């Protein structure tokens, strides 16, 4: 089979060739949008999160039968368009549970102890003043975990290690996990009211789009911190900006942004015949967030440890090998 991998690093290519020996495999360091003609006859493609796949993308691959995304999330893929073409899609269900949870707590500590501000002060001004650097302890505080899947449960374990009280929200509560790990579930509004720190670990879908929004930000405990390492669309950007400006939130740590793809490639977005007004507004709001002193933004980096990337590649190759062998696995709905 012809198999095309996109957004591939050099060390990955050797492993892929060794695992898929006998298959016609081609590689591209770029995104699918930058792909040349050598990939157009591929029957299988393996993209990463920066390669959006829609009807126009699929039209460039007339022989395509299977997409093996190297990610847990699959909101960058138009599943309806794939279904119309009969194209199966697989993901990597659990490659970075601890990886992402650890990163979330890196952001939490950076916010609550003002670590980034302190480092920046030394580097930029060689100023050793402690003025404005007083933080808060995590021990004894309440953290609200939104989403108690694999990553959420790892975040709960870490929070317990810090001596935090944990309250959680999930559309499908797991009481067994709650009993084993020692946390309780609550309605979303109650979680927002009780939490000193809110950490999001839910997938983005129709039920979680703008889960935190202009209607429920008023319930957030004044002075709380919000961390999002899941998907940007779970938080309404305008509502987040309002909560920060009004002092409802003391700060935010964001590894993801709404309309993240367009923000990364603004020139391409703005060069379109008519830019989407709503998306443009979100982009401007995101730039406002970038310039706020109490907001830390990282470039969708929570997954990015060597161990996690190795797990991603291993699981993806297993998905591809299973499809080639006629036994598909880890298919998304």
**Could you spell the SSE succession in H and E letters?**
EHEEHEHEHHEHEHEHEEHEHHHEH
Instruction: Note the beta-strand portion.
Output: 5-15%
The level of helicity is 25-40%
Number of DSSP helices?
13
Distance between the termini: 24 Å
Uncertain segments: none
Major β-sheet strand ordering: 8-7-6-9-10-11-12
Outline the biggest β-sheet.
7 strands, parallel
Radius of gyration: 21 Å
Q: How many individual β-strands?
A: 12
Overall, the morphology is: globular
Mean of residue pLDDT values: 95
- The structure class reads alpha/beta
Tell me what the structure shows.
This protein is of the alpha/beta class and 333 residues long. Helix content is 38%, strand content 15%. The protein contains 13 helices and 12 strands. The strands form 2 sheets. A 7-stranded parallel β-sheet has the order 8-7-6-9-10-11-12, sandwiched between helices. A 5-stranded parallel β-sheet has the order 2-1-3-4-5, sandwiched between helices. Helix 4 (97-112) crosses helix 6. The two termini are 24 Å apart. The mean pLDDT is 95.
């Amino acid at each position: 089979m012809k198999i095309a991998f996109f957004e591939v690093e050099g060390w990955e290519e050797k492993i892929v060739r060794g695992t898929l020996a006998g298959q016609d495999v081609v590689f591209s360091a770029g995104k699918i949008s930058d792909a040349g003609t050598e990939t157009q006859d591929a029957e299988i493609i393996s993209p990463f999160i920066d390669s959006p796949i829609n009807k126009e993308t699929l039209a460039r691959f007339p022989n395509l039968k299977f997409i093996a995304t190297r990610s847990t999330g699959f909101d960058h893929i138009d599943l309806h368009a794939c279904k119309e073409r009969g194209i199966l899609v697989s993901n990597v269900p659990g490659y970075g549970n601890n990886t992402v949870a650890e990163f979330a707590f890196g952001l939490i500590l950076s916010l609550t102890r003002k670590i980034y501000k302190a480092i920046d002060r030394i580097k930029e001004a060689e100023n050793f003043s402690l003025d404005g650097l007083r933080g808060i302890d995590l021990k004894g505080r309440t953290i609200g975990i939104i989403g108690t899947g694999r990553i959420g449960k790892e975040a709960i374990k870490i929070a317990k290690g810090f001596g935090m009280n944990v309250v959680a929200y999930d559309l499908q509560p797991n009481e067994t996990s709650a009993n084993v790990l020692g946390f309780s579930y609550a309605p979303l509004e109650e979680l927002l009211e009780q939490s000193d720190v809110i950490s999001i670990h839910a997938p983005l879908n129709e039920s979680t789009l703008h889960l935190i929004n202009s209607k429920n930000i008023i319930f957030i405990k004044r002075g709380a911190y919000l961390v999002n390492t899941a998907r940007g669309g779970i938080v309404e950007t305008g509502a987040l900006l309002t909560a920060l400006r009004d002092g409802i939130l003391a700060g935010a740590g964001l590894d993801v942004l709404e309309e993240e793809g367009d923000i990364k490639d603004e020139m391409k977005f703005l060069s379109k015949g008519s830019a989407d007004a709503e998306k443009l507004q979100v982009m401007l709001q995101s730039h406002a967030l970038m310039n706020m002193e109490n907001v830390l933004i990282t470039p969708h980096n929570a997954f990015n440890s060597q161990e996690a990337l190795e797990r991603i590649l291993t699981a993806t190759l297993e998905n591809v090998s299973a499809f080639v062998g006629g036994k598909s696995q880890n298919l998304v709905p």
